[in-house]
Amino acid sequence: MSARYDTIVVGGGHNGLVAAAYLARAGKKTLVLERRPLLGGAAVTEEVFPGFKFSVFSYVVSLLRPEIIRDLDLPAHGLQILPLESTITPMENGDYLGSWADPDESRRELCRHSPRDADAMVLFGRLMHHMAMAVKPILGMVPPDPASLAPAELAGLLKLGGHFRSLGAERFHALHKLMTMSSADYLDEWFEFDTLKATKSASGIIGTFLGPRSPGSAYVLLHHYMGEIDGAFRAWGFQKGGTGAISNSIASAARAFGAEIRTGAAVERVTTRGDRVTGVALESGEEIAADRVVSGLDPRLTFTRLLDPKSLPADLVDGVRRYKFRGSSGKVNLALSGLPDFSCLPGKGPHLRGAVSISPSIDYLERAYDDAKYGEFSEHPYMDIVLPSMIDPGMAPPGKHVMSIFVQYAPYALNGGWNDARREAFGDAVVKTLARYAPNIESLILHRQVLTPADIERITGLSEGNIFQGELALQQLFFLRPVPEWAKYRTPIHGYWQCGAGTHPGGGIMGASGRLAALEMLKDGR
Ligand SMILES: Cc1cc2nc3c(=O)[nH]c(=O)nc-3n(C[C@H](O)[C@H](O)[C@H](O)COP(=O)(O)OP(=O)(O)OC[C@H]3O[C@@H](n4cnc5c(N)ncnc54)[C@H](O)[C@@H]3O)c2cc1C
Asked: N or C end of the chain, less CB within 10 A?
């Protein structure tokens, strides 16, 4: 047995690191144990091919909570977010829809396609801002349980009720619609231009086994609307050096507060005596004692891998078994010898410093989903494409580029299962689809890395490759995330806690779960 710790954090994903930083800041002797040789989980940068660095999984940032940036002074530890300046959507008729940093330019562009939508966009933007502001406080609170009569829960509910009442009837009704409708239906109420609706609805399908016409997708759209960079709402950006540099900045803050961090330290199980945690046992055989253990892993691993499920209440284990992962996303990372030439906007223009969304119509996205519904990857997938080396040249050798392609749909449960041939066929479908819009792409590819949900699970541990540690579906959000009655970061084992994206408020590089869990643990210790 080695030294005893106040707290051991299992998993050095960004949420585990945030939890460790807050605990260490409060004076707790804290140790983080990460299985992989590098920190960050789904937020890592790796030099996959010599000279070419990739944000291998997550690639843009927006949701990271401003209070965490402040509390941990992350800019002093290397956080530096460069704005993503635009989004273009190539259309099937050779035209495109652009959205630019300058709102007037975006308005003029939308007017070209639909003056009616350009007017509607002003009101829509305002309403979505209010919706995001309405939900924002919930991101920073421990969810009260409406089924409980405990005074603290009732007080929390009362506070929340008051908050929603203050929205006024119109905004409250809009929020209800967003929580329940499909993104296509919701956007139909506002706009007529199909490419606009498709591009907006795309953020409603990310990380979820839903199509734009599936009820519930409008909430995911809102989830992606809540981002904020330096006070600019809805802004998305690149971390200099890739998303791994975000994780490293949090790790550096945690170390500065006194936390110890070990990589290459896979935890085999959490050790207990009766219903109390005593520490962890590593795969190496080493045992480390601690008063508390907090898992940054997803709910399946937290409850049924690190613990013997027999030691837990049956309804909790059933809840975890029912919790939906259903990974639906893949990633293709390309090392390029030069820049892609999009037929809709030829040459090297400012659009290459922003995102390119392959989402020409709602039908296109829904058909991509149809493939996945029946167990196949999309022949013509939705893709969110960025060229980080255009903004951060250090990511690729001079004159060369890295391209990150987030892809849907790639179902975890592929007919016949994933293997090398199916992975390459998926990569081919992505490149062929992209070549319809950027015909020179195939001639530029020096190397390619194709990641299926099975690869995401194997490398990061994310069960079924779900990018959010479980779908952001209404039935597993808020006081239901991950399961009813165990949504407050606690578990039935005394001293064993959970802090990953599988807890409220969910996935994305947000850090909110790690922070809220740590604050609850500190409150509990007082
Ligand atoms: C392909 C992809 C693209 C994405 N794109 C974006 C994006 O652009 N923007 C965005 O905001 N979000 C994005 N996301 C989502 C976001 O990255 C995740 O939701 C978030 O990083 C989850 O963080 P976490 O700390 O909760 O968990 P994780 O990142 O899953 O961290 C868990 C950690 O635990 C470690 N671990 C597992 N088992 C053990 C063990 N037994 N012992 C010790 N350690 C263990 C893992 O190695 C991992 O480091 C993306 C995710 C993926 C996969």
From this structure: C
- Burial (CB < 10 A; 0-12, 13-18, 19+), residue 151, is exposed
pLDDT tens profile 248-263? 999 999 999 999 999 9
Asked if residue 96 has a cis previous peptide bond (ω within 30° of 0), the answer is no
Closest ligand 1 atom number to CA of residue 63 = 11
Furthest-apart CA atoms within the chain: distance in Å: 70
What is the per-residue pLDDT for 150? 84
Both tokens assigned to 254? 């945690």
267 lines ligand 1 (CB under 6 A): yes
Banded pLDDT at 229 (limits 50, 70, 90): very low
Buried b (16+ CB within 10 A) or exposed e, 34-67: bbbebbbbbbbbbeebeebbbbbbbbbbbbbbee
Q: Which of ligand 1's atoms lies nearest the C-alpha of 266?
A: 42
Distance CA 198, CA 50 (A): 37
- Distance from Cα 41 to the centre of ligand 1, integer Å: 4
Q: Is the entire prediction scored with pTM above 0.90? A: yes
Ligand 1: nearest atom to the Cα of 16: 25
